[in-house]
Design goal:
Elements lengths: L9 E6 L7 H12 L6 E7 L10 E3 L7 H20 L5 E3 L5 H6 L7 H9 L5 E6 L8 E5 L9 H4 L2 H17 L7 E5 L14 H15 L3 E6 L1 H9 L5 E4 L2 H12 L4 E5 L5 E4 L16 H19 L25
Parallel strand pairs: 1-2, 1-4, 2-3, 4-11, 6-9, 7-8, 7-9
Antiparallel strand pairs: 5-6, 5-10, 10-11
Helix pairs in contact: 1-10, 6-7
Amino acid sequence: MTPPSGSPPQTVAVTLGDPRGIGPEVMCAAVRALQPSLPQVSFLLLGPEGFAPADLPYQSVGAWDGTQRGAGRVTVEAIRLGVALAEEGQVVALVTGPAHKPALQEAGIHTPGQTELLQSLTGAAEVGMLMCAETTPLGGSLRVLLATTHLPLREIFQVLSRDLLEEKARLLLASLVRDWKLPDPRVGLCALNPHAGDGGLFGWEDAEIQAPVAAKLQREGWQVEGPVPADTVFHRALRGEFDAVVAPYHDVGMAAFKTVAFGRGVNVTLGLPFPRTSPDHGTAFSLAGTGRADPSSAMEALRLAVFLAENRRAASGPGPALSPRPREDGNPEDGRGAP
């Protein structure tokens, strides 16, 4: 973010996550590592009493009683405070530390995860879980939106539909235009069945769901291809053929993503009124306090939050663009952008 000369620093809220895990140490370490290179940004840490670092801005959300339920409560209270600060305009983005789902459940939060909790707190009509690695060891970026998230595999066929896939694809396209400044994003719709069904030999879902959605969006001028077999779509994205991929279910997307981006990936919630990012890992209780926790993913989450906040701040109009920019010949202009 580069505000005009003389403008006050932009503030990003950072929750510590579950106090029993590695969240407090990696989030603080990430802020310390990045703050010198981002003088135009201020980071505000949010967490329980007794966890405030002496050298960083901190706001307490109350005491932790040492129980799992209490850990869930202070995790949620930090998220609530971060959302309130963002909605009031006091912070430009929210970065959340890793949470423990059973602790959230014990604290009375019955959503599957932080993504759904944030949707509930903000009243967002629709949200999307985007796993993002702007750089990977293979060179290219990889962005994977999960069309369905935390569901048993046997339920995917009942949940995945044309309407759902179109909704997620449109949310992704609009976010890539506004938040990533990609004027004509290229998106691949990952197939559900082996070889995209292979003409019905391995199922008709891809022909009945992915193909019609891709065709509809193409008619509107979007650069969307699908269904693309799962064994090639991520490779093609890493080669630069797609700016993002929509995965039909959790593990087909996450397995590919974490294979190439583990420790550097970022979880981005699309559809919120402010940018929200999080490290791509969990609480890692066994590593807490050992000094071996790696803050790399937390650093990437902070960097991306700053990048997205600046792009949103610079975007014209109140929301994301909802249609591609046409060329004179009627086809989408193949303009590219890069974070």
